Amino acid sequence: MKIEQERLLDFMGKDGVRFAIPVFQRVYSWTSRQCEELWDDVMREGLDGSGEGHFMGMLLYSTDAQGWGEIDQLDVIDGQQRLTTATLLVCALVRYVEEGEALPDGVSADFLRSRFLLVGQGSGVAGKLALSDMDRDTLYALVGAGEMPEEPAARLVENFELFYGKMAQPGFDAARLWSGLQRLEVASVLLAPEDNPQLVFESLNSKGMALSLADRVRNLVVVTDEGSSASGVDLFEDGWLPLERVVEGADVEGLDVTAVLEAWLAESYRDTRVYDKSEVYGVLKVHLRDACGGDLGRLLASALDYARSLVENEALREEALENAQRWVAGKPKDLISEYKMFGD
Q1: pTM listed for this prediction
Q2: Residue 84's beta-bridge partner residues?
Q3: Which of 92, 238, 260, 309 stands 20 to 30 A from 248 (CA)?
Q4: What secondary structure, in 3-state letters, does the chain show?
Q5: Average pLDDT, stretch 220-236?
Q6: Which residues on neighbouring strands pair with residue 55, listed in sequence order?
């Protein structure tokens, strides 16, 4: 590994480089609270100006050997949330400057956009940061590299508007914000060619926030695709993404892919005792082995059908989600302890 401490804007502004989020990562998920905290950190640094800068943590990345056309591509293994949020903040600053406001040293909206938000030239221009399939088009639209999709990623839009709303308030000091942004620092860590990015990602998450059931199934899909590339079947594109789109497109409170999978398994394994959420993936692996004959595509198709039924039937959805919550918590009194018989 190559480790370097550098300014976040220097990392974001690497010339001729595109950043990509691998498919095994979560979608963008920072809340308004976390964005407020970043804003406060930036403004505090901009006011102080005498300290050593604000350290934001680690950005772990690897070099993509295939690149992106003639553009170098770096795959961000850890640090997506911080990098995306900083991109949204710069994007809001671009809008602010475009409306006639000024930044120190003649920094223009065109400079900000070309340095931190876009890559490529002419008809080949694209967003400098390429998020996961569910988020990519929305961020591209916000940075000026495409049209806003019919169903934009709400979290991205909301956080962008949060930052811009703060800039629109009376008394906002743009010079202070710009100074604070320049003082954000990260430890950028470049993986060695022999390191496996997905294994590193899972190792990091096992020591921090636990991967959700959806995260673990997505990883299983990616690994299975890599192991059967010669078959011509693309489980991620044809099996996983349709499931994500149905659930995310429904925009139903409390309904995400993990909730769908838990409800689906709870219905099929109501007599199997689990003691907490960590054991549910083991049940799914049992279902994949015994009910689906090891066919992950068949499992994803069944889960997709179930997801559609939950989206279309509110009464069924409410009952199923309630039952699933009790099941994954090990609370139902009428369940017998069979799970340990299955193994993992």
Answers
A1: 0.63
A2: none
A3: 92
A4: CEEEEEEHHHHHCCCCEEEECCCCCCCCCCCHHHHHHHHHHHHHHHHHCCCCCEEEEEEEEEECCCCECCEEEEEEEECHHHHHHHHHHHHHHHHHHHCCCCCHHHCCHHHHHHHHHEECCHHHCEECEECCCCCHHHHHHHHCCCCCCCCCCHHHHHHHHHHHHHHCCCCCCHHHHHHHHCCEEEEEEECCCCCCHHHHHHHHHHCCCCCCHHHHHHHHHHHHHHHCHHHCCCHHHHHHHHHHHHHHHHCCCCCCHHHHHHHHHHHHCCCCCCCCHHHHHHHHHHHHHHCCCCCHHHHHHHHHHHHHHHHHCHHHHHHHHHHHHHHHCCCCCCCCCCHHHHCC
A5: 66
A6: 185
pLDDT tens digits, residue range 139-188? Answer: 999 999 999 999 999 999 999 999 999 999 999 999 999 999 999 998 88
Residue 190, both tokens: 């470049």
Neighbouring CB atoms inside 10 A of 176's CB total 18
CB 1 within 8 A of CB 200: no
Q: What is the CA radius of gyration of the chain?
A: 22
pLDDT digits (tens, 9 = 90+) for 25-53: 778 888 888 899 899 889 988 886 655 67
266: Cβ contacts below 8 Å, ≥ 6 apart:
320, 323, 324, 327, 328
Q: How far lies 165's CA from each of 91, 169, 170, in Å? A: 12, 7, 10
CB-based contacts of 327, cutoff 8 Å, min separation 6? 262, 265, 266, 269, 270, 274, 335
